[in-house]
Design brief:
- This is Rhodanese domain-containing protein.
- InterPro entries: Rhodanese-like_dom (IPR001763).
- Keywords: Membrane, Transmembrane, Transmembrane helix.
- It is built from seven helices and eight strands; from the N terminus they run H-E-H-H-E-E-E-E-E-E-H-H-H-E-H.
- With 202 residues, the protein is of the alpha+beta class.
- It has one domain.
- The strands form two sheets. The chain has a five-stranded antiparallel beta sheet with strand order 1-2-3-4-8, covered by helices on one side. The chain has a three-stranded antiparallel beta sheet with strand order 5-6-7, with helices on one face.
- Strand 2 and strand 3 form a beta hairpin.
- The termini are far apart.
Length: 202
Amino acid sequence: MARLQHDADAVVERFQPTSGRISGWLTVGLSAALVVAGVAYLDDGFPAWVAAGGLLVGVLAWAAMLRPALWVTEEHLVMRNLADTVHIRLAAVEEMAVRQVLAVRAADRRFVSTVVGRSWRKAMLSRRTHGADDGPRDGMAYADWAEHRLHELVDGARKSAGVRPGSREQLALPDPVRREHDVLPLSLIAVSGALLLLSLFL
């Protein structure tokens, strides 16, 4: 049974972020510099609240811009977001589209991932010029390829499960969505926020 579970959790496709990584790392780097300066020069009058604020901004930048991830296993589309990880059964996906973010509808709920997305202009142009059924082609933008690949994986899972989008059979699939709250980012945000509040009274 453990072997079967391991196989089901094996990553089939991992999607690369289309934006936010450079600005995220820059923000984390600047925040780290503020924290180091605060520790080194605290006795020389460096404001403690500036260092604490830098820590909070750095943690938020990491959680919101660097931590999010998107991958597909044998059975699930997995969205790791700022403070939680959502496992969506591939066969249970009713609708899906890549606009400014990836939006997925399953179990009559909407889920969003910021990992894959387009600019507003490209999202509007994509909506007018082609759909998710277009196949891969030379020069295809990564967001377009990712959308095509996601639809390919979802369509394959629906076919294997013998369900159609929005059908009664699809809505009756067991465990369509599982959400897990992640302790680490929530704890880091809470601690850094508490340090900022404390520093304001020092």
